[in-house]
Design goal:
By secondary structure, the protein is α/β, with parallel strands linked by helices. It has a seven-stranded mixed beta sheet, with helices on both faces. Strand 13 and strand 14 form a beta hairpin. Helix 6 packs parallel to helix 7. 47% of the residues are buried. The chain binds beta-D-fucofuranose. The site of beta-D-fucofuranose (GYE) has 14 residues, from helix 3 and strand 9.
Length: 370
């Protein structure tokens, strides 16, 4: 196990052994590969995998606030099964960063081989990740990002381009309004995710930028619904009471909050839909979960921009590559789709790249994995 790796004597013995056998050391690109701890960790890994012991993974999950999160948990649990040669220690932090910090420290004490982290917010990870580095344990970050002063504190990151997701959504709205010849002021409410989470930062920034650069879009309010249906509904009820029929668009930063927002709109006597000139409230959302897409097919969500939660196989592949001493990218973005059943917008253009918009059918929903 990697923890045994702290002892300088063992490290020297091991390095000697590997040098003698002529093994070329290489590792996670731009990661801890250039520092002593990172390299030591790799030496040990090679030896361990050859002994075909299970690889121990300590995985710190944020919680279970949304359908997206639950699909993500299922995916990582399936990929790191004992049948696949893993010993997964899974920790659910119940939406608290302090629980994630505690879990990581426990993983270090337990001497896991890899720590995998989906960080609830971006900041506050420097100390704990330094401790993992000192213990020679590679940290793989996924979905949301960590904002640390020294990026050798984590081996690599894989996740979505949340700002791009937001830009695609805003561009879809802008194309949709042009197609319909809608030129008057557009009043927007932004229901945000957990403040400080990468997904929130990127998606909020996209709508803020779009409003800033637009002639007639107005942001009436921005408030966090914490990614949950209940909070999304509560916040939307309050905003409906305040802004009522002035609201044209609700830009909601995930599907679960969209379920709550749609309930709130209906319970307050308003109608969801794309016909804003007939007083309908147009809702846009992110994730493209099963229920989110069903609401999109029904027209309650005008466009749902995908955020793929199925990280299990991708993370397992990264671990396998690291086990084999192969180079992996420091940062990997995953590709995502966008779905709508209103209008006939086939693609949106963001910074000179054309992104397709999938016209949603029930067949597409049925065939999806989550
Ligand atoms: O959009 C939301 C979840 O970090 C991308 O977190 C993830 C977000 C996702 O709870 O549903």
């Amino acid at each position: 196990m990697i923890v045994k790796n702290h002892k300088p004597k063992k490290i020297i013995e091991l390095i000697m052994l590997l040098l003698i056998s002529g093994v070329v050391l290489c590792g996670c690109t731009g990661s801890a590969g250039n520092n002593k701890e990172g390299t030591d960790a790799k030496n040990i890994k090679r030896e361990k995998s050859s002994a075909s012991q299970p690889v121990t993974i300590g995985l710190s999950q944020i919680g279970s606030e949304s359908d997206w999160r639950m699909a993500s948990t299922e995916s990582v649990k399936a990929a790191f099964s004992s049948g696949a040669g893993y010993n997964l220690i899974f920790d659910d932090a119940q939406q608290k960063q302090e629980n994630q910090l505690k879990a990581i420290r426990e993983f270090i004490d337990q001497g896991v081989d890899y720590i995998i982290l989906d960080p609830i917010v971006e900041t506050g990870w420097d100390s704990v990740l330094s401790e993992a580095k000192e213990a020679g344990i590679p940290v793989i970050v996924y979905d949301r990002r960590v904002d640390v002063a020294d990026d050798s504190l984590y081996a690599c990151w894989i996740g979505s381009d949340f700002y791009l997701e937001g830009k695609r959504t805003c561009m879809w709205l802008s194309d949709f309004f042009s197609d319909r010849g809608i030129d008057h002021n557009i009043n927007i409410i932004n229901i945000q995710g957990t403040m400080g989470a990468t997904a929130q930062i990127g998606r909020s920034k996209a709508i803020e930028d779009a409003v800033y650069h637009s002639r007639n879009w107005r942001l009436l309010a921005q408030e966090s619904g914490e990614y949950t249906t209940a909070k999304g509904k509560e916040v939307m009820k309050k905003l409906l009471a305040k802004y009522g029929e002035n609201i044209d668009v609700v830009y909601v930063e995930n599907d679960n909050m969209a379920y709550g927002v749609i309930d709130a709109i209906r319970e307050s006597g308003y109608v969801t839909g794309a016909d804003i000139d007939k007083g309908e409230i147009l809702v846009v959302s992110f994730d493209a979960t099963h229920n989110g897409l069903q609401l999109t097919l029904d027209g309650a969500i005008a466009v749902d921009t995908e955020c793929n939660p199925l990280y299990g196989p991708r993370l397992a592949e990264m671990v396998e590559m690291m086990e084999a001493g192969e180079d992996i990218e420091k940062e990997t973005y995953i590709e995502e789709d966008q779905f709508s059943a209103v209008g006939y917008i086939a693609s949106v253009n963001v910074e000179d790249t054309e992104y397709p918009v999938t016209y949603l059918t029930s067949k597409i929903i049925d065939e999806r994995a989550y």
